[in-house]
């Protein structure tokens, strides 16, 4: 097939958002008799799942303190549930296990989950939490826990397999996915600010509409679209704060303990929910007993046959550099800078041992030879921006919340077809100037 010179809908990025939007848009065009997947071209500079979607731990949860995030996640969970085989989705559930400082906020999450019909159980008080956890794992020993939110839905999915599942669905609808095509800039209309063509390493592609799902590369596209590097934000104090950096990079730290995944089962032999623990109990080294931290810390983990062990991560760290100077390429495990090091390995393995006795003395089994971790690009309030810029460019900037957000593409497709989505409304760019910010939680993670 020859290189296309034009397309009606150009989708940039073959990660979760680009592929999900392409697939759902194709379905809607066909169903409404307004076209088909043949009107859609997905381009990616590397390959399907070459970005964050291909290295994500794959956790799918509803647990968010922000009501708008929770409602959006509930929608996405229903998309995962719609075809678990194609999406390589494991609906094992998810647990948020928290200290007293988070108790009240997690209680509101539970109340609101009840209100939106999202199935979960909430346990309160140190003794009852310990009893509940021992009912699941007889070696449970995490300290400082006073609430447990057990989401019965959600779980995790296999990163690359789920992206190929989405790509197959899109291609079955007639969408063309071209890899090895790098977008280097845009051509803008002479009488409008709209994009009229993609300028790529293989030639110019004229287009009517552009959808950008570029994950950690979004700041590059922001520059190509000539958007401001710094913005003004109306803060919670009611005052305008000028000159706030639009994009900030964080490095996510994840890895795998090279044990048989079957060693992490529940007491009844079943596959456990994804475990997320935050606690302010002191964390001691599982190697030499030294104090690692006495501040709030958190980790998450799950047995995972895809990763070949018990896989998970802990809090990310901020990359203190001008976003233009951050080396996003080579990405993920290929990066010389943004992969986990010995500190993460020691800390995360000690966290595992703090939580469950079965992980004590296992640090040496960590998979040192497999590089892991990767960059995420965050907005000023660490929540997504889903909005249209320059009249015809839909930017899906998920602020690194996004592997689990497989349903966002469906909602974006709906908006591209002309129907506004109430679920996406709280994530417009205009919220910064208007001061319509999302509430902030006490969690040690920037994305809770
Ligand atoms: C280590 C790690 C673990 C994570 N774990 C989870 C998790 O458990 N659960 C969760 O919900 N989220 C998780 N996330 C976040 C999640 O992975 C991302 O938010 C999400 O995958 C972003 O999807 P995307 O489609 O926007 O971008 P990506 O998946 O990054 O895809 C972007 C694509 O754009 C392409 N591209 C970039 N520039 C160009 C260009 N100039 N021309 C053409 N193509 C281009 C890239 O090659 C890439 O394939 C994790 C992130 C990281 C880094």
Q: How does this structure look, described?
A:
With 448 residues, the chain is of the alpha+beta class. The protein is built from nine helices and 23 strands. The strands form five sheets. Strands 1, 2, 9, 10, 11, 12, 22 and 23 form an eight-stranded mixed beta sheet that branches. The protein has an eight-stranded mixed beta sheet with strand order 6-7-5-16-19-20-15-21, with helices on both faces. Strand 13 (230-234) and strand 14 form a beta hairpin. Helix 1 runs parallel beside helix 5 (159-172). The chain is globular. It binds flavin-adenine dinucleotide.
CA radius of gyration: 22 Å
- Sheet having the most strands: 8 strands, mixed
Can you tell me the overall shape? globular
Strand content: 25-35%
Please give the number of β-strands: 23
Q: Could you say which small molecules are bound to this protein?
A: flavin-adenine dinucleotide
Structural class: alpha+beta
Straight-line distance between termini: 45 Å
Helix content: 10-25%
Low-confidence stretches: none
Name the average pLDDT. Answer: 96
Keywords:
eight-stranded mixed β-sheet, globular, alpha+beta, single chain, 9 helices, 448 residues, binds flavin-adenine dinucleotide
Topology (elements, then pairings):
Layout: E1 6-12, H1 16-31, E2 40-44, E3 59-60, H2 67-82, E4 89-90, E5 94-98, H3 100-115, E6 120-124, H4 126-136, E7 147-151, E8 155-157, H5 159-172, E9 176-179, E10 183-188, E11 195-200, E12 203-212, H6 218-224, E13 230-234, E14 240-245, E15 248-257, E16 274-279, E17 283-284, E18 291-293, E19 297-304, E20 309-318, H7 342-355, E21 374-378, E22 385-389, E23 393-397, H8 408-416, H9 431-434
Parallel strand pairs: 1-2, 1-12, 2-9, 5-16, 12-23
Antiparallel strand pairs: 3-8, 4-8, 5-7, 6-7, 10-11, 11-12, 13-14, 15-20, 15-21, 16-19, 17-18, 19-20, 22-23
Helix pairs in contact: 1-5, 1-8
């Amino acid at each position: 097939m020859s290189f296309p010179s034009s397309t009606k809908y150009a989708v940039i990025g073959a990660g979760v958002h680009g592929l999900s939007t392409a697939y759902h848009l194709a379905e809607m065009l066909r169903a409404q008799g307004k076209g088909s997947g043949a009107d859609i071209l997905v381009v990616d500079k590397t390959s399907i799942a070459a970005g964050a979607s291909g290295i994500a731990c794959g956790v799918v949860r509803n647990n968010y303190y922000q009501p708008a995030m929770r409602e959006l996640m509930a929608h996405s969970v229903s998309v995962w549930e719609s075809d678990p085989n194609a999406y390589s989705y494991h609906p094992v559930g998810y647990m948020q296990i928290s200290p007293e400082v988070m108790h009240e906020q997690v209680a509101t999450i539970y109340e609101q989950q009840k209100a939106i019909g999202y199935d979960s159980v909430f346990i309160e008080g140190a003794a009852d939490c310990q009893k509940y956890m021992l009912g699941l794992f007889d070696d449970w020993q995490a300290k400082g826990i006073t609430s447990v939110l057990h989401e019965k839905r959600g779980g995790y999915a296999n990163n690359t397999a789920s992206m190929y599942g989405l790509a197959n669905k899109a291609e079955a609808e007639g969408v063309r996915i071209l890899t090895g095509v790098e977008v280097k800039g845009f051509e803008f209309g002479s009488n409008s600010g709209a994009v009229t063509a993609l300028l790529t390493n293989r030639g110019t592609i004229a287009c009517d509409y552009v959808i950008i799902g570029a994950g950690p590369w979004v700041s590059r596209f922001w520059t190509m679209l000539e958007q401001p590097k710094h913005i003004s934000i109306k803060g919670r104090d009611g005052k305008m704060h000028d000159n706030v950096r639009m994009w900030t990079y964080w490095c996510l730290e994840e890895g795998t303990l090279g044990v048989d995944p079957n060693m992490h089962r529940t007491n009844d032999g079943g596959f456990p929910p994804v475990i997320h623990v935050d606690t302010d109990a002191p964390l001691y080294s599982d190697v030499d007993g030294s104090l690692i931290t006495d501040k709030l810390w958190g980790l998450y983990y799950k047995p995972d046959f895809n990763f070949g062990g018990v896989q998970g991560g802990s809090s990310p760290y901020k990359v203190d550099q001008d976003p233009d100077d951050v080396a996003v390429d080579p990405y993920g495990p290929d990066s010389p800078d943004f992969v986990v090091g010995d500190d993460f390995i020691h800390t995360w393995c000690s966290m595992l041992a703090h939580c469950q006795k079965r992980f004590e003395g296992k640090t040496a089994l960590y998979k040192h030879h497999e590089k892991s971790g990767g960059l995420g690009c965050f907005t000023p309030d660490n929540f997504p921006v889903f909005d249209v810029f320059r009249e015809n460019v839909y930017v899906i900037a998920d602020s690194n919340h996004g592997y689990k957000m497989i349903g966002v593409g469906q909602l974006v497709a709906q908006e591209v077809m002309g129907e506004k989505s109430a679920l996406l409304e709280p994530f417009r760019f205009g919220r910064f100037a208007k001061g319509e910010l999302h509430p902030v939680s006490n969690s040690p993670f920037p994305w809770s």
